[in-house]
UniProtKB/TrEMBL annotation:
Descriptive protein name: ABC transporter B family member 26, chloroplastic
GO molecular function terms attached to this record: ABC-type transporter activity; ATP binding; ATP hydrolysis activity; ATPase-coupled transmembrane transporter activity
PROSITE patterns for this protein: ABC_TM1F, ABC_TRANSPORTER_1, ABC_TRANSPORTER_2
PANTHER family registered for this protein in UniProt: ABC TRANSPORTER B FAMILY, ATP-DEPENDENT PERMEASE MDL1, MITOCHONDRIAL
KW Membrane (keyword) present: yes
Domain of life: Eukaryota
Annotated keywords: ATP-binding, Membrane, Nucleotide-binding, Transmembrane, Transmembrane helix
Membrane topology category: Multi-pass membrane protein
Residue ranges of the TM segments: 138-161, 182-208, 277-297
Domain ABC transmembrane type-1: 141-420
Subcellular location: Membrane
Length: 699
């Protein structure tokens, strides 16, 4: 790459990072910045276009923002010709439809979201209408009743207004008084009805957003765990927040205003037709032209809406992630990098919004021009009609007033229609998520056994995560009821995954898991999970008091004494009691140490007196003394508290596993050794080697 081109390119990248491809896709030679850095500046089409196209950066869309690079001048170039070509290029870029048009949108994202099923305006409206109607139909009935009354009152007023003025000018006192009283009556009616209309539609907004969020949230919560592996939390919360709010405007604002203005427009048109049909038709023609322009504009709005929605969700996701990991960011000093990452999405949002605003400006310009020309046209035609004695000044006044109403109503309709289409476009992803069927696990009612013994069998089980290689291969293990077993093996060999399969968080790719002789998928999974106590490596706490955190998800009624006993067994009572508010202290994920969180999670698992207890590195953050105490208590619980327990322990510390009845040694997704501590030592295999290493470097 030549030096000047290289530096220039780097400068451009620094200034406009989202709009230029990364350096590996940059033109390699023969490019320099032109002298004319005028708006809009572009990337020359002679550069390595195909490479640009194949990259994730769409130069076609973005280049047209501000950059202009031309092949390096060999010294013989014709300046005038270059300038002329430049301006042609610039002028053409202002028109939509040209491949390098300024109006082209950054549609990389659309490719990704293209899977979202298209929804028609009718279907979206019907769904939203039903949501409000089913919750409170009276709100809608009163709202539409008030809307109709207000619209009729308002549209009658210009006619009566003109009648009053002209009756006064003609000295007809009685007529004037009657019209004046009518005006007062209509003013009061329209005032009351408008207030009622706004209030009821506001209420419909609230109902709709609440129902949308309820339904969307419950649709999301009941998805398979693998769904959450694919979707980001920020994306989902953005759908629940901003997108639902956007959708709620459809009934409360858009439909409300569109219906009101449609009624007013119909009334105005009816009056116009009675006044003068040629004038009415000329106004109609102008309204039709406006509608045609609006159609073009609305199609553009639909596309910008979807992109805005997606980019906003991505920005939200980045912000959520950065704020959640703020400590890591501070420690690694990556604040600026994170701001840059967030800004990248804001830039893309601004890119779309700029075009959207420009399109809105154009649309408003067309409207204003046509609106004014209607008035000019009316005065011209009306003036000719008055001069030739075909119409009166009163009729012309009424005509001009109603003409204004008609055009104004048309503008309000189209304006709200564009906002409606914007929301409908945003509704696609929301409805798509809402329509997801709950996980199979919640749809089928499985078998509930009278008692869970805790006999577990993995028969030829294989498994891989979505888009990953096979992780577990042909696992055949048996865990007898009331046995304590340990899973041992190097990090990443699939120990936690094995447990995830037992909890049915994922389904095996092959093979079957049996619990008490029944295939796992035949059992009522909620019932089974009630009987399992699970403590994960990095337990999470909810933002609520410690007592509620320990009691969380417990299927039976518990007293304060039960909670305290469980906390004592988990070695948690002492530190909880040291807090000023004891068990009522509000905690969350950030307010306790790792070891404290683990102890609360262990207390939570002990409290529910499970038939199967799974401890996945559950004591890894505890000091040795507490770990031994907790381990001894848990093992002692085995035959205690009204029922036996099968205990599965995953641990790296060998001190935790030596007491197990059976140890499964895993490596690269396979169980390679089975036996108790002594048996495995005698085998002198992988486990024995682990013990030797451990004895050399005890933790
Ligand atoms: N949700 C997931 N999606 C894709 N891959 C995953 C997922 N969860 C775990 N993995 C991958 O599966 C492999 C096994 O993970 P697993 O947590 O079962 O290992 P482990 O033996 O419990 O490790 P450790 O002892 O470090 O906890 C890892 O390579 C991990 O990256």
């Amino acid at each position: 790459m030549n030096t000047s081109g290289d530096i220039a390119y780097q400068n451009l990248r620094t200034s406009f990072p989202p709009y230029l491809p990364p350096p590996e896709f940059a033109p390699t030679s023969g490019f320099k910045l032109t002298k004319k850095l005028q708006f809009p500046i572009m990337i020359s089409t002679n550069c390595r276009r195909n490479e640009f196209k194949s990259s994730s950066y769409r130069v076609r869309n973005s280049s047209l923002m501000f950059q202009y690079m031309m092949p390096e001048d060999d010294g013989n170039g014709d300046e005038n010709f270059e300038s002329f070509g430049h301006w042609i290029h610039v002028s053409l870029s202002l028109f939509p439809g040209v491949s390098y048009s300024w109006w082209n949108l950054d549609e990389d994202k659309q490719v990704q979201i293209g899977a979202a099923k298209r929804i028609t305006v009718y279907l979206a409206l019907r769904r939203m209408w039903k949501l409000v109607w089913d919750s409170n139909r009276w709100v809608l009935l009163v709202a539409f009743g008030a809307l109709t009354m207000a619209a009729i009152s308002e549209i009658s007023m210009p006619n009566i207004l003109a009648d009053s003025i002209f009756s006064a000018s003609r000295g007809k006192t009685t007529v004037f008084a009657r019209k004046f009283h009518l005006l007062v009556f209509l003013s009061i009616t329209s005032g009351i009805c408008s207030g009622l209309r706004s209030g009821c539609f506001g209420l419909a907004n609230i109902i709709l957003v609440k129902r949308l969020r309820e339904l969307l949230y419950s649709a999301i919560v009941f998805q398979d765990i693998s769904f959450f592996d694919k979707e980001t939390v920020g994306n989902l919360t953005s759908r629940l927040g901003a997108d639902c709010q956007q959708l709620a405007h459809i009934i409360g604002n858009n439909i409300n205003l569109i219906t009101r203005n449609a009624l007013q427009a119909t009334g105005a048109l009816a009056y116009l037709l009675t006044l003068s049909w040629p004038l009415a038709i000329s106004t109609l023609v102008i309204c039709s032209v406006l509608s045609a322009i609006f159609l073009l504009y609305s199609r553009y709005v639909m596309r910008t809406a979807k992109l805005t929605q997606e980019f906003a969700a991505c920005a939200h996701d980045v912000a959520r992630e950065s704020l959640t990991l703020v400590k890591t960011i501070r420690i690694y000093g990556t604040e600026r990098k994170e701001v840059g990452r967030y800004k990248q999405w804001l830039d893309r949002l601004a890119f779309i919004s700029t075009r959207e605003s420009a399109a809105y400006g154009l649309w408003n310009m067309s409207f204003s021009t046509l609106y004014r020309s209607t008035q000019v046209f009316a005065v011209l035609l009306g003036g000719i009609a008055i001069l030739s004695g075909q119409t009166s000044a009163e009729q012309l006044t009424k005509y001009v007033l109603y003409c204004e109403w008609l055009i104004y109503a048309t503008w309000r309709i189209t304006d709200n229609l564009s906002s409606l289409l914007y929301s409908i476009a945003a509704s696609e992803t929301v409805f798509q998520l809402m329509d997801l069927l709950p996980s199979e696990q919640f749809l089928c009612k499985g078998v509930k056994l009278p008692e869970l013994m805790g006999h577990i069998q993995f028969v030829n089980v294989s498994f891989h995560y979505h888009l990953r290689d096979m992780l577990l291969e042909h696992i055949n293990i048996t865990i007898r009821a009331n046995e304590v077993v340990a899973l041992v093996g190097p990090s990443g060999c699939g120990k936690s995954t094995l447990v995830n399969l037992l909890l049915r968080l994922y389904e095996p790719t092959n093979g079957q898991i049996f619990v008490d002789g029944i295939p796992l998928w035949e059992l009522d999974i909620r019932w089974l999970r009630e009987k399992i106590g699970y403590v994960e490596q990095e337990p999470n706490l909810f933002h609520m008091d410690i007592k509620s955190n320990i009691r969380y998800g417990c299927p039976m009624n518990t007293t304060q004494e039960d909670i305290e006993l469980a906390a004592k067994q988990a070695c948690a009572h002492e530190f909880i009691s040291s807090f000023p508010n004891g068990y009522d202290t509000i905690v969350d994920d950030n307010l306790l140490s790792g070891g404290e969180k683990q102890r609360i999670a262990i207390a939570r698992a002990i409290l529910r007196n499970p038939a199967i207890l799974i401890l996945d590195e559950a004591t890894s953050a505890l000091d040795s003394e507490s770990e031994h105490f907790v381990k001894d208590t848990i093992f002692a619980l085995k035959d205690n508290r009204g029922g036996q327990k099968t205990i599965i322990v995953i641990a790296h510390r060998l001190s935790t596993v030596v007491a197990a009845d059976k140890i499964f040694v895993m490596d690269r997704g396979q169980v390679i050794e089975i036996g108790n501590h002594e048996e495995l030592l005698r085998k002198d295999g992988y486990y024995a080697r682990l013990v030797k290493v451990h004895n050399k470097h005890p933790d």
